[in-house]
Design goal:
This protein is an all-beta fold. The chain has a domain at about 20-105: Thrombin, subunit H, CATH 2.40.10.480. Helices cover about 0% and strands about 50% of the residues. It is built from 1 helix and 23 strands. The strands form 6 sheets. The chain has a 4-stranded antiparallel beta sheet, with no helix packed on it. A 4-stranded antiparallel beta sheet has the order 5-6-7-8, with no helix packed on it. A hairpin with a 4-residue loop joins strand 7 (about 90-95) and strand 8.
Length: about 270
């Protein structure tokens, strides 16, 4: 384990006007646009932060955004997208924080969306409550298709990641991971064998070679070979200090794992 030092902590004071300039309200999803960080607050707004110095840029609070419970955030190279558990997808111009559009038509099939992945052309949104994944054209927000059906093995899907070719979706209900071909949305495989050690799995991230899955219930992280989905190893709490690992992110060198039960973050060299 590397020697880690805390750089900064931006505190949540828990209220729309709680006295803290960041004004976090149950922050959840976070994305980086190359300059700024965008944080989805389940309290009903999005916070923009300057990544260079951690200073507040703005809080997007205007009712025109239609925020109910902002949950996940993604950047497509041009715009920021927020998945809201009010069953909408909100597109924002990061240049000034202005609203571009709100996707809310029932045809998108949004139902408690929990995560967004961008594959270079399309957005893929996991819908926790109706066991589907919605594919959207990022250029104009048009619907491409909705993936559903028992063959995909979706169930209370929590997170989604793109490895350059395939998408990986964590299914909380079935302790499984679904691999999808991003080119056409076809099923590649569903990983569910007990040897993977999946246990209340939440977050998923890709390092270019491996897929990493956080097991909240098992206090462990499963490493998978992205080329064929084969099991590589399980990293346990005893060695890595994992305590309710939830979401996971890759910075190009290390995996960063948020420990929901330990109020801590574990860094593991990829």
């Amino acid at each position: 384990m590397p020697n880690l030092a805390r750089v900064a902590t931006l505190n949540w004071w828990g209220g729309a006007y709680g006295g803290d300039p960041y004004d976090f309200g149950a922050p959840y999803g976070i994305a980086f646009d190359g300059t700024h960080l965008w944080v989805a607050n389940q309290g009903g707004w999005v916070t923009e932060i300057n990544a260079a110095d951690g200073s507040l840029v703005q809080n997007l609070l205007d009712p025109s955004y239609g925020f109910a419970y902002p949950y996940a955030v993604a950047f497509d190279g041009t715009h920021v997208w927020v998945a809201d558990q009010g069953d909408t997808l909100i597109e924002i111009n990061p240049a000034d924080g202005s609203l571009v559009q709100i996707l809310s038509d029932p045809s998108y099939g949004f139902n408690s969306p929990t995560a967004i992945a961008f594959d270079g052309t399309h957005l893929w949104v996991t819908n926790q409550s109706n066991a589907t994944v919605t594919q959207i054209n990022a250029a104009d927000g048009s619907l491409v298709q909705i993936l559903s059906g028992a063959s995909y093995g979706f169930g209370a899907s929590q997170d989604i990641a793109f490895d350059g070719t395939h998408l990986w979706v964590t299914n909380l209900s079935w302790n499984s991971v679904t691999e999808i071909n991003a080119a056409d949305g076809s099923l590649v495989q569903v990983l569910s064998d007990p040897s993977y050690g999946f246990n209340h799995l939440i977050g998923v991230a890709v390092d270019g070679t491996h897929v990493w899955v956080a097991n909240l219930g098992g206090n462990s992280v499963t490493q998978i070979n992205a080329a064929d989905g084969s099991f590589v190893r399980t990293l346990s709490s005893a060695s890595y200090g994992l305590n309710g690992p939830a979401y996971i992110a890759f910075d190009g060198t290390q995996m960063w794992i948020a420990n929901n039960g330990g109020n801590s973050i574990t860094a593991i060299p990829a």
